[in-house]
């Protein structure tokens, strides 16, 4: 992958901003609470450090993974730390009948569906913004160490430099954090930048 | 416990001497292959991500089972270990996501395990302990003092191989 200049990073940050903005609107509607988006970070990292974007490598998180196809193949993750995921579920189900167990089938299915809705919102805006085709796989959900979940996004990445567009979202009333991570395949970075009109130096 | 803990990242390889320890955090479908020489107490760990380097231009040898295990054996020898004394343990190779669909990358864990097994068999190195497969992430720590491999999971606590 070629080194990226400020203009490239700004364009990718804008993608993260718009995508996560749409996703946050969906989340806000779903939970009927205000959701604030943090400034997106675009980083080119050695892939051992990708996990730092969402906290510690061994932190337990709920991860929803999508393989992205179309014009910019890559990986997409929607990550909620375990304690935040419980708070989100409690907010959705006042009964709290999932018993705090995130492995519960109902809980996993609900969290997968949230991930699905938000990721669709993010990727539709990516598609609109770049006038490109973006397809997604069915969501895959797991509750485990952050590193073990994000690993699948790194399998085909370059070990030394992995591009991630990371956006955090904060649900103010619940004090809950969640994370959107767009990890384009190395071969997708140029087409994405071209679509954003910032190819070349 | 004396000694340092040396971190082995993804597609990384490290060799240490007694009393240092080697740690890999959050192995999912990746496999940690640990080698230990009981006489010199040289310990080595490689963090394998994919079964084979074939078709990849990626120069990171430690990333692939076929090239990574060979490199680990070479590094062990350079540090005074002898192949005929080496013992192997491994952990990892899970399938993290249940609904993998047609995505083969989500089902790479078992193939990584098989490839590591084959690579070790080629050198005639006996496998003396393993905790592989399933659907859970693992953090592992190899103790050069006695060759023990600690395996920690989020749900299952800790076991020692």
Automatic annotation (TrEMBL), chain A:
Residues 8-42, 106-141 form the CheC-like protein domain. CDD domains: CheC_ClassI. It comes from the Bacteria. The keyword Repeat does not apply. It holds the Pfam family CheC. One of its GO terms (molecular function) is hydrolase activity. InterPro entries: CheC, CheC-like_sf, CheZ_family_phosphatases. One of its GO terms (biological process) is chemotaxis. The keyword Hydrolase applies. Keywords: Chemotaxis, Hydrolase. This is CheY-P-specific phosphatase CheC. It comes from Kyrpidia spormannii.
UniProtKB/TrEMBL annotation, chain B:
Pfam families: CheD (PF03975). It is an enzyme of class 3 (hydrolase). It catalyses: L-glutaminyl-[protein] + H2O = L-glutamyl-[protein] + NH4(+). GO terms for molecular function: protein-glutamine glutaminase activity. The keyword Hydrolase applies. Gene3D superfamilies: 3.30.1330.200. Its EC number is 3.5.1.44. PANTHER family: CHEMORECEPTOR GLUTAMINE DEAMIDASE CHED-RELATED (PTHR35147:SF1). Belongs to the CheD family. This is Probable chemoreceptor glutamine deamidase CheD. It comes from Kyrpidia spormannii. The gene is cheD.
């Amino acid at each position: 992958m070629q080194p990226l200049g400020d203009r490239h990073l700004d364009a990718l940050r804008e993608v993260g901003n718009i995508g996560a903005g749409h996703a946050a609107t969906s989340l806000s509607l779903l939970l009927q609470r205000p959701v604030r988006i943090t400034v997106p970070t675009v980083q080119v990292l050695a892939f051992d450090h990708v996990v730092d974007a969402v906290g510690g490598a061994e932190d337990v998180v709920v991860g929803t993974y999508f393989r992205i196809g179309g014009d910019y193949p890559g990986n997409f993750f929607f990550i909620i730390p375990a304690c935040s995921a419980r708070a989100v579920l409690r907010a959705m189900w006042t009964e709290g009948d999932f018993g705090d167990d995130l492995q519960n089938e109902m809980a996993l299915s609900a969290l997968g569906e949230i991930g699905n809705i938000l990721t669709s919102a993010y990727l539709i805006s990516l598609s609109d913004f770049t006038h490109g085709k973006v397809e997604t796989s069915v969501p895959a959900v797991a509750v485990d160490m952050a590193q073990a979940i994000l690993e699948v996004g790194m399998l085909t990445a370059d070990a030394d430099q992995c591009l991630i567009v990371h956006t955090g979202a904060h649900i103010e009333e619940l004090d809950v954090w969640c994370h959107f991570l767009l990890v384009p395949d190395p071969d997708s970075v140029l087409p994405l930048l071209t679509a954003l009109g910032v190819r070349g130096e | 416990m004396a000694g340092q803990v040396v971190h082995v990242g993804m597609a990384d390889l490290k060799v240490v001497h007694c009393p240092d320890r080697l740690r890999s955090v959050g192995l999912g479908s990746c496999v940690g292959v640990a080698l230990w020489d009981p006489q010199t107490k040289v310990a080595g760990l490689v963090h394998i991500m994919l079964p084979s380097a074939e078709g990849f231009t990626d120069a990171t040898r430690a990333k692939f089972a076929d090239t990574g295990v060979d490199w680990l054996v070479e590094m062990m020898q350079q540090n005074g270990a002898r192949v005929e004394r080496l013992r192997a343990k491994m952990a990892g190779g899970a399938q993290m996501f249940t609904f993998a669909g047609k995505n083969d990358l989500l089902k790479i864990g078992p193939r990584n395990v098989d490839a590591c097994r084959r690579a070790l068999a080629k050198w005639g190195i006996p496998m003396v302990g393993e905790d592989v497969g399933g659907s859970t992430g693992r953090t592992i720590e190899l103790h050069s003092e006695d060759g023990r491999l600690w395996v920690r999971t989020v749900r299952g606590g800790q076991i020692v191989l």
